[in-house]
Structure formats: C-alpha cells, structure tokens
Please model this.
Amino acid sequence: MKRLLVLYSLLLGLLMPMGSWAQERPLGRMSPSEKAELERNLQRWRNLSPEKQERLRKEWDYWRSLPQDRRETLKRRFEEFRELPPDERQQWRNKFQERRQFLPEDKRTLRERLREKDKRQRPRDNRDRY
Model:
C-alpha cells in the first residue's frame, strides 16, 4: 500500500499539475510559486531512473484512460485517506497488505463477493462507492 501511495503521490504531484497548467495557463502567465513548483517537479522527474519514468508514463496513460467520474472518485478517496489520522492510515495499510497476501483464487472470490455486495447496494444508494 505504501508503495502504491508513493507511486500515486508522485504521479499526482509530478504529472497532473504539469498537465493542467499546460492546458490552462501558458508558462509566462504562471505565478512565481507555480513556476517554482513546476521546476521542483521537473527536477524530481529528471532524478528518477528511466525505469521509474517509464512506469510513471504507463500509470499516467492508464489514469488518462479512466472515465472522468472514476478519476474524480479515486482522487477524492486518495484525499480522504491522506486526511485520516496516522494510526488509522496504518490500519488501512495493514488491511491492504493482508489482502495482497491472498492467493489469486482467493482474491477473485473476494472481488466477486464485493461486486455482488456493491450491486445489491446501488439501487438503494446511488452514491459512487469506489
């Protein structure tokens, strides 16, 4: 879980601001703090190994391929996780680690059970559960 959070944190920290700035504001219109943040992100990018850069590019491509509503849900859940107290975050990390140790068939069974549960709950509650 920690590795996943680090990866998504890097992804969100490095690539998303650059993408949104490139679309919304030309470089000349950036504030000094925005320019400094962009420079820090570019420096972090340059310091990554080529393998990590490639992995982040693939993650970015995957992220961009997701529907907008799914991206918003994931961003919201990520922010909610970051706002949890440290002990609660650790509890979730531990649960995630336990889940990662399942056998593939156990994961499949759990995934199917969760999907069934989600399908049963959706008619009652139209809020997004992801």
User: Anything to note?
Assistant: The chain is about 80% helix and 0% strand.
